[in-house]
Queue: 2 jobs
Job 1
Amino acid sequence: MFRFTEEEIRRYSRNIILQEVGGIGQQKLKDAKVLVVGAGGLGSPAAFYLAAAGVGTIGIVDDDVVDLSNLQRQILHRTEDVGTPKVDSAARALSALNPGVQVKTYRTRLGAGNVMDIIREYDVIVDGVDNFSTRYLLNDACVMAGKPLVDAGILRWDGMMMTIKPREGPCYRCIFPEPPPPGVIPSCQEAGVIGAIAGVMGTLQALEAIKLILGVGETLTGRLLLFDALEGRFRQVNAARDPNCPVCGDHPTITELVEYDLACDLPFGVAAGSAERKIEQ
Amino acid sequence: MPEDVQVHRELDLKGEVCPYTFVKSKLILETMAPGEVLRVIVDYPPATGNVPRSMESEGHKVLAVNPAGDGVWEIIVRKKD
C-alpha cells in the first residue's frame, strides 16, 4: 500500500511531514547518489546527515588512515579506529546509523586519472578535501561533467562555502582562478582548526545537497557564505560567473584536467579574505 | 459528510498513533489525483485534531470529521487541486 516499509515510514517521518519533502521527496533522497570527497572534518557531518536523511547511495573517497589527531573534529571515526582506513571507518559508522544506505568506498586519492570515473555515477558531489590540488581538480572535473558541487573550507575559527552549479553560476575558478602559491595559506595542521566549525560547515553542505536533490529552496549558487565562529556571524558575498573563467567561461582554456603539484596541504578557509578583495575590486 | 461526496480511497489507521496517522494519510494522498477524496479511519483520539490540522496546513480540504462508532472516527479529506 505504501511505497516505504513500516520501518522507513517511522525512520523518515520527520522528513515526510515537511511540506517540501513528503513521500515524493523521500523517494528522491532514496534514489539519490551523493559523493563525499574526504572522510574528514567536513565529510564526517556531511555524510552522517546524508545517511540519516535517507540518501540511498553515499560514496566516500579518502586514501588516508585515521590518526588520533583527527578525532577532535572527524566524528565519523572512533578512538578504536586509529590506524584503519578512513573509508572503512566511515562505512561502518554510516551503516550503523542507517543500514538502509548503500555506502560505496574509494580508498584512493582523487587524481586526473580517476576523478571523472568516480564522479560519473553521482548526482551531487560534496567537497570535503584538505588541499588545493584536489579542490581545483574536483572543481574542474565537476564543471566538465556538469555535476553540482557543494564546496566548503575551514581553518581556525572560520568557514566558507559555495554551491557550484556548472554554468548556472560561478565555479571555484571564477572567484579564485589559480591556487595560491604553496605556503601562503597555512594548513589546519599548521594553523589549527576548532572541531565544531567543521561540524557547522559540513552540516551546511549536507543541507545544500539535500536541497539540490529535492529541488527546493535557494542554493548557495553565486553566493559565498562565510562564517566567523569567534564573532558568531554569518556573512554572504555575492559572486557572478566569469565569462572569461578558464574552465567554465565562454571560451575555456582549461579543457583537460590539471593536477597542481603543491608542496604541502593547503586548505581553503582563509582565502575568504582574498575572495572579498577580488569581488570588491 | 454530505451525501454526494464520492470517496476514492479508504485508509484504515486503527491502532496507529500520531504523527504516523498524518504521515500515512499524506503518503496515500500523494498517490491520488487532485480533487479526489480520502476517507481515513482512526481510533487514536488526538488524531481527530492533529490529522485535519496538518492536512489543512498542506492546503487540502477537510470535509468532515465524524464519530464512526465504538471509539472510531472518520476523517474525510479532499486533495488540493
Job 2
Amino acid sequence: MSTTYVVRDSVTMLRRNLLHWERYPSLAIMLVAQPILFLLLFVYVFGGTLGAGLPGVPGGGDRTDYLGYITPGILIMAVASVALGTAISVAMDMSGGIIARFRTMDIAKVSVLTGHVLGAVIKTLLTTVITLAVAVLLGYRSDAGVGEWLAAFGVILLLAFALTWLTVAMGLAADSVETASNTPMFLVLLPFISSGFVPTDEMPWGLRHFAEHQPFTPMIDSLRALTSGASPGSDLWLAIAWCLLIALAGYLWARRQYTKVPAR
Amino acid sequence: MTNRTPAIEVAGLRKSYGDLTVLDGVDLTVPEGTVHALLGPNGAGKTTVVNICSTLLSADAGVVRVASLDVITESDRVRSVIGVTGQFSAIDELLTGRENLRLMADLAHLDRATVAASVDALLERLDLGDAADRRAQTYSGGMKRRLDLAMTLITRPRLIFLDEPTTGLDPRSRREVWAIVREQVADGVTVLLTTQYLEEADALADRVAVLDGGRLVAEGTPAELKRQVPGGHVQVEFTDGRSERIASDGSVASLRRILDGLDDREVAGVTVGTADLDDVFLALTGHPTVDPGNDAEADAQGVLA
C-alpha cells in the first residue's frame, strides 16, 4: 500500500466523517453545548463566590476574574467532549456491517481510523473556537499575543489528537453504542479534579496529590500561562509528554482492537 | 468448465472457537466464472467459510487461495479482486444511496467522472433510481440489501461472495437478485454464495456443496445431488395438521410399505414428489434442513433424528 493511497483513503474517510456530523446534528449540538453550559454554570452560578477565593488577586477576585481562571479548563473540557463524540461515532460504525465491508476492500487499513481522528481534530478546532467566542462575549479578555495563542491552540490540537486515538479505541472496544457513550465520560469529568476550576492547594491531601499529577493539570496550567501571556515553563513539556503518551497508547490499543473486530 | 483455473481453492479448512468446532476440514474448489452454492442450515459453518475466503477471519488450519492468491500472505491483493455482500447490510445509513456508491468508488480509487455513469446505471438496475438521493436509513429492508449488492458490484470485482443474499427478501426481489447474479456470471465473474434455500441453490448454482456441522457432506451439480436420491419422497399430511416427508425409491414396493405403515384415520392426504434438494439434504444428513426462524425446533428435530 503506497502512501498516496493512505492520504487518499484518509481524505475519503474524513469526508464521510464530516458528512456524518452534518447528517446527525443533534450529537454535534450536544457536544458543543456541553462545555458552554459548564462555562455558564460556573461563571454565573458559582463564579461570584469562587472568584472571591482566587489566590493572587488583591482584595479577592470577582466573576470576571473567575471567568479568566476557568476558561482554559473549559477549553480542555471542550476537547474531551468532542473526543466523547468520536467514541460514539466509532461505536455506531461498529454496530453496522460497514466496517467489515471496509476490511474486505483493498484500502489503507488505517484510513478508517485516521478519518475519525482527522474529523475530530477539525471538530475540536470548531468547538473550542465557539467556546472561546462565548467566553469573550461573557467578558473574557486575554493579554496574550498571536504567538502565544497559536501555541495554546497547538496544545489543544495535540490533546485532541491524543484523546481521539484513545476514544477511537474505546469506541472499538465497546460492545454497544451506549457503552461507548459512557466509558469516555471520565474524560469530561476529570478536568474538575484538576487545577481547572479551583486551585489545587485547597483540596484535601489525597485529592490534591491526584489533581496535581493528573495529565489535565499541566495542560490546563500551560493554557492558562500561554493565554495570559506568561511563560508555561516545564508544564508545557509535561503537557506535550502526556499527550504523546496518551496518543501512542490510544493508537496501539485502537490498532489492536481494529484487527480483532469480529467479522459480520 | 473443466479446463478453467480455479477461482477459489480451499483445502483442509479448520476453525474452532474454544470447544466449538465450526469448520472441521473443508475442501472446496470453485472454477472461474461459475456459481458455487454453500448449502446448509444455520450454524453449518457457511458464513465462516465466506469470512475466511474474504480475508475477514483467519483459519486455524488449512490453505485458502483466492484468484491464485493466498488469503493470509497476499490479503491486500485478494481484497482488490473480491466483493462481499454479507448477511447484515454493510451500508452507511447516514449517506444517500448515491453517496454510498461513490464512497465505494472512491475507496476503489476509481475516477469519479468516469464512474458517475456506472453509479447511475447500477442504481437504475437495482431499482433504486428514485431513492438514490435519499438517506439509506429511510430504505426498506429489501432496498438496503439491493444497495449493499450495488456497493459490491460498483467496484467490478472478479469474484463475489454473497452470504445469504436473499434471506428476508420478498419473492420478486429474490428473483431480481438471481437475475443480477446470472448477469455477473455471464460477464465471467465467479460467485460463491451461501444459502439456506434449496430452491436458490438449484436455480443459480453450477455446483452445490452441502455443509452440515462444519463438514462437507456432499458436493456436485444440483442434478448429481438429486441422483443420489433416486425416487424422491412421499409427503404425508396428517389430520392433526402435522406433515411428514418419507424418502422413497419410487418403486411400488416402497410406496406400499409406506402406505401400510399409515393409519387411514389419521391421514388427511398423501403426495408423491420427485426428488429435490430437500430430499438430498435429508438423505445425506439424516435430518431435514432448517426452516429459517424455526431453528430451535429444527435443531431439536435434528437431535432426535
